[in-house]
Amino acid sequence: MRPAHCLRQASGKKELREVHIRDLDTPSVLIDLDVMEHNLRSFQLYCDRHTLRNRPHIKTHKIPQLARLQVDLGAVGITCQKLGEAEVMADAGIDDIFVPYNLLGSHKLARAAQLASRIRLSVTCDTLAVAEGLSEAMHHRGLEISALVECDTGMGRCGVQSPGAALSLAQAMDRLPGLRFAGLMTYPSTHQLAKTTAFLAETMDLCRRAGLDVSVVSSGGTVDMWRAHEVRGVTEHRPGTYIYNDRYIVASGAAAMENCAMHILVTVVSRPTKNRAIVDAGSKTLSSDTLGLDGYGHIVEYPDAKIATLNEEHGYVEVAGDGTTPVLGERLQIVPNHACVVSNLHERVIGVRGDRVEVTWAVSARGKVQ
Amino acid sequence: MRPAHCLRQASGKKELREVHIRDLDTPSVLIDLDVMEHNLRSFQLYCDRHTLRNRPHIKTHKIPQLARLQVDLGAVGITCQKLGEAEVMADAGIDDIFVPYNLLGSHKLARAAQLASRIRLSVTCDTLAVAEGLSEAMHHRGLEISALVECDTGMGRCGVQSPGAALSLAQAMDRLPGLRFAGLMTYPSTHQLAKTTAFLAETMDLCRRAGLDVSVVSSGGTVDMWRAHEVRGVTEHRPGTYIYNDRYIVASGAAAMENCAMHILVTVVSRPTKNRAIVDAGSKTLSSDTLGLDGYGHIVEYPDAKIATLNEEHGYVEVAGDGTTPVLGERLQIVPNHACVVSNLHERVIGVRGDRVEVTWAVSARGKVQ
What is the ipTM of this complex? Predict the structure, then answer.
């Protein structure tokens, strides 16, 4: 990977040489900086207008410099799904991190306490045993952290199943040393708007009647982000993909194709038949996530061509039209189905402005599965 | 990640402490060394019996120490799909590497020539322009490498489409400086046994009549590996997944579940309902590859439970039976659908013998997309 600018000898003197997209090898993950910055500013503006706190999920980029940018633009802190991601972000100076994931086991509890001793860490629980583990780990070290009750308001993943169960857990958390019951968390938010609103409203009501302060109600998701204010009581939102956007977000209607900042630069490496082109990006580059979409990405230069199949290092493109293009060696840009998993596959991404390379970022929090 | 053995102070003196699977955090990728070694030896023995050369594809493990082990057990060299993988392996002392992938563009051609100057590199082409690029890059530097014609014998991916096209390309390659036409390559081999055999036989016949020596006929795939000798003329085979095996290979019949060396150690992090358990391994740990299978992996302890859905950090398990197990905090081992893509997601894997940790390997060639 080249640095953004290279010094080279030319005519006997050094000059700063610009690097362009055409100079890059493929596959490379490009981030259009103008588009990315627009995406970040637009949602922050929305939050400011609706008096919502913005707490972006860094899973989409996994890059400390971009987390810093999100905070500098107005985010109150960030969201990480794994402690390993949070540790990378804390090392880079991010000091308010929410980990909305049940933390279990001695390794993770010790690391959570270590994190809580140096940053403002908050977490979620969906059952008493998880709260008790956190309580013991924190209290033992003289720490206290905010903990939210994860509510399953329709996703069918983790979370308490009813407002009554949420209240019981909140009351238990409120009594445990080392934990401070701070409110409620759900994901996604507007997918089932009426159900989510009803679940959260009833839980807030139960908590308040029980004398519990619900200071945070945290919702999430990029698909839902422009409607986050419609869920009554929500105080903060956790969008992830909005920084880059992707084909799935475009299909959901939350962004347009021109709002997609992540493009995968690829080369046509084989044209075995008139209707088949093979590109040098397979599931190792694009991931095999379809998210219910047809095909594995959108080819900017050939929007009618379908990426029909992926092997690890091969993308099979069904060529549209008369089959004369794309030609062998031609370079294409692909908007991936799912930007987050692409970030997790790559060591580096390249920030470009127009066709000029401006920066290379290490994806420092990639691969942090623990 | 812990080292395999940790020195600790105990009773005032240092002792070597064994690390067991129970000491590991989750998710972790475990490799059962006894099973892996058995897998490697079994196929090498098959090759020796059938006078086939074994040239394993390292995409499954991406670990130089395991490539070394494959060669030490009798492999003639290795196969890499990407130059970045080949460079890692060459740096580790592997000196015979086959890259069966069309190499295009100035970056890759320069790197291929650099590799060819220090190891025995061989490649494939499926069209004249690719051969010409390689020829120029090698000849310019005074190098000559072996090149095989990639034949599409039924896969429908890259490769020449007919024996006649194979002959034409072979003749052109034979004339180009810097390249030495060495034979034919196909993948997979026995999926369409009659078609593959007929394509290769006709091509070999055409080449020999034209005075071209077909010294190598290279076939590939773990699914096909025990039948590699049935394809007349094949001189070497390139199995990848056989080192670990996985749920897909078991479904294909080429291995049994007890031959699967890769297990993902996970924890049940949520039990929101009687029939749903959530584990801390999602697509970031297991990948979203289904390879046509139902569900995302085989749970060793609960073979009837289905991993029905994955998000990035969550695996949704449909619990079978009365729903009382697995319990929150329980640790499970999952045989993944596709071992190769799991390796590509992780920085490290942990070699275990029985329940004892023996070694931790960095997956040094992971993420090499270029």
Answer: 0.95
